[in-house]
Write a structure and sequence with these properties.
- The chain is 43% helix and 13% strand.
- The chain contains eleven helices and seven strands.
- A hairpin with a 5-residue loop joins strand 4 and strand 5.
- Helix 1 runs parallel beside helix 11, helix 2 packs across helix 3 and helix 3 packs across helix 8.
- The chain is globular and about 50 Å long.
- The relative contact order is 0.18.
Length: 248
């Protein structure tokens, strides 16, 4: 499961390798990518309900859940609700709460443009926030994020509503407490993959997560920001192989 305003193709390289060991499903979650924009909102509970419905529809059981950013929150909540159906979890650059540095950065960050006149303009804007991904991988990621409208402008595939409101999950104390409770209660192995260049998770938060759950461990990927699978796809595969039992 991808992150906020993302899409399923962030997993392309990972899914291709893991498909020799697992049946891999990568979802465009509600309001994202090729999925419809919703009429009943984007509360966290709706995403988890969607995941539950997907799992039920395909009769999936004993699943390894892999979620980046908000996809990681969705994985934790689902595993808390359905512990017998999840055998392991990988969460990518996400935690029950964000670091103090990330809070400050968010407060100073301007809104994302909703339209661009040219693809190259969108690419230049994307590159400003991501100096780590290769040119080819960043262009591929952007090509899955935006679409050219009949008026010639380029706009996000994700619902514009997702860009206009900030996520309450790492701001609202009730959400934060809920994620800590989930982390403490989950009994299957959990691997955190943190982008070394990302400011979202501090070392202090990682240590608190380790104390909260003895099944939790973490690994950093050098030269990667928040979207580790786009910034360093091969390195992400390398650090998750052993955890998933997917040896070459």
């Amino acid at each position: 499961m991808h992150g906020h305003t993302g899409h399923a193709h962030i997993w392309d390289e990972f899914a291709e390798v893991m498909s020799t060991h697992y049946h891999v499903y990568a979802l465009d979650q509600r309001g994202h990518g090729g999925s419809d924009w919703t009429t009943d909102g984007y509360a966290r509970e709706r995403f988890v309900e969607d995941l539950a419905s997907f799992m039920d529809a395909l009769s999936l059981d004993k699943t390894a859940l892999v979620g980046l950013s908000m996809g990681g929150w969705n994985a934790l909540l689902y595993a808390y609700n359905e512990p017998d159906r999840v055998k392991s979890i990988i969460i990518v650059d996400i935690a029950p709460e964000r670091s103090e540095v990330a809070k400050e950065e968010q407060a100073n960050r301007g809104p994302s443009p909703l339209e661009f006149y040219r693809f190259e303009e969108a690419y230049a804007w994307s590159r400003l926030g991501n100096p780590w991904a290769t040119d080819a991988r960043l262009r591929k990621d952007l090509a899955q994020k935006i679409v050219q409208r009949p008026n010639g402008k380029w706009a996000w595939k994700a619902d514009p509503a997702l860009f206009k409101t900030s996520l309450p999950d790492n701001q609202d104390p009730e959400y934060i407490a809920q994620y800590w409770r989930c982390l403490e209660a989950i009994t299957c192995p959990i691997l955190e993959v943190r982008g070394k260049e990302s400011s979202l998770l501090s070392d202090n938060i990682i240590e608190r997560m380790k104390r909260a759950n003895p099944m939790f461990r973490s690994v950093d990927v050098d030269g990667a920001g928040h979207v580790v699978t786009v910034d360093k796809p091969q390195e992400f595969i390398a650090v998750t192989r052993e955890f998933l039992g997917a040896f070459p």
